[in-house]
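Human: If only I could read backbone structure tokens as easily as an amino acid sequence. Underneath my words sits a plain record pairing an amino acid chain with its backbone structure tokens. Take your time, and here it is.
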Amino acid sequence: MAFSLLLIFVLAFPVSAVLNVGDEVPNYVRSQITGIDLHGQDLSKSSIAGATARDANLSDVDLHGTVVTLADLKGSNLNGINLTDTLSDRVNFQKTDLRNAVLVNMIASGSSFAGAKIEGADFSYSVLDSDDQRNLCKIAEGTNPVTGVKTSDSLECSDGGSSGYKPPMPGN
């Protein structure tokens, strides 16, 4: 009898799920999210590995600590995004808007940044392929509004942009 009353109570008063601090965050692994608008959301420690998110609005999204491996973000708005401490290897960043992005300590080996806008982006301590670093140095301008670091300094651009890339070490 008590079980029947409990069952009636549960069915009569449905419980709605609320995402609180510390709860599980959305997972977009291998999702087709082209054109999605996630502007301003906190997706820290989530994953968009293998996702296709072309022409998406991820501006001002907090993705720090995420896994973005093998994602296709071509043409997406990533203005002001936080990709600190992300594993972003083999990601298609072609023609993305990375202005004012924080990409500190990001691993982006094998990724492509061709045609990306990077004014004000902070790449401090990030691991990039030397060709990407060299090409990004050619267009590096501005200062990140959050960290105060010049884009060219964060990429360790030299005058000619022809030297090999070596990520800066903390404390140097």
